[in-house]
Amino acid sequence: MNKTYVMLKPDAVERRLVGEVISRIEKKGFTIEAMTMEVLTEEKAREHYSEHVEKPFFPELLEYITSGPVVGMVVSGPGVIQAMRTMLGATDPLEAEPGSIRGDFGYSKTMNLVHASDSGESASREIALYFTTDQICD
Asked: Which residues, including other chains, have CB under 8 Å from residue 72's CB and lie 6 or more apart?
């Protein structure tokens, strides 16, 4: 699969980093095939983060991810899933490499600016959660 789902989380939108992240994606040579902005409902957030629902940090994550608008994107290109994960950097911004999005702009493990699918299976599931096939420009 040469498509992935990328979400700019509420802190990225609030801090006006949307353009910066999009610019990095495009400068890498990837294509943004679809984009939307929405405030996630609790139901959609629970479905997105279904693997974390029983974890102790989930209530804080749920409160954060539904606290403001997110920008969701379908991004395509060769090796895009792994490349986006590398571009984002480690989940904990204090461990993220300089030059990565989280390394350059992040300061909190919970409010860490961005999400990208971690596998082809996750990408398919997440894209289907946020977009219909007629919304995606191949």
From this structure: 5, 6, 7, 8, 35, 36, 37, 38, 130, 131
